Amino acid sequence: MSTLTEAEHRDWTDGGTAIVYQRCNGCCAIQYFRRAFCHECGCSELSFLTAKGSGVVYAVSNVTRAPTLEARAHGPYTIVLVDADEGFRLMAHGATDLAIGDRVTASFSRFVDRLVPYFERTTS
After folding, report:
1. SS3 of 14, please?
2. What DSSP string describes 40-102?
C-alpha cells in the first residue's frame, strides 16, 4: 500500500494499471470507487492508496451472453467479486476456474477497448 499525491491517483478506470482506493483521514474508513467525501462520516479529507492486488473471491459469475457485440469476442468470461486485503470489495474479471474462497492476485488484461483488473488463483 502506498499513499499517492492528487496527480498520481490514476488507476485502471483512467487507463492505468493500478487499483486505487481511498482512506478517510477523519475516521479511517476504506472505500472503493472514488468519492469526494467519506461514505461513513462525510469528511472530505481522503487519502488515495494503491492496493496490492490480492484478496479472496467472494462471488463468481460466468457470463455466457455478453451485453455487446464487442464483448462477445471475449465470451464466455468470468466476473468475480473480490474482497481485497485492504478491506474493500471490487468487481473484476477473473479466470474461468475460480471458486468462492480462492486466494487471488490481480494483473491487467485487455477487455474490449480497455485494460481491466483480471484475477487468477494465487499459486503460492
Report:
1. helix
2. TT----EEEEE--SEEEEEEEEEESS-SSHHHHTT-SEEEEEEEETTS-EEEEEE-TT--TT-
Summary mean pLDDT of the chain? 87
Longest dimension (CA), the chain: 45
* CA atoms within 13 A of residue 10's CA, in its CB half-sphere: 7
Question: Is there a contact between 83 and 89 (Cβ–Cβ < 8 Å)?
Answer: yes
pLDDT in tens, 64-120: 777 766 767 767 889 999 999 999 999 999 999 999 999 999 999 887 778 889 999
Within 8 A by CB and 6+ apart from 13, the residues are none
Phi-psi region of 36 (alpha: psi -120 to 50; beta: other; left: phi over 0): alpha
pLDDT given at position 12: 84
CB 92 within 8 Å of CB 117: yes
State the pTM of this model.
Answer: 0.83
Question: What integer pLDDT is reported at residue 5 of this predicted model?
Answer: 53
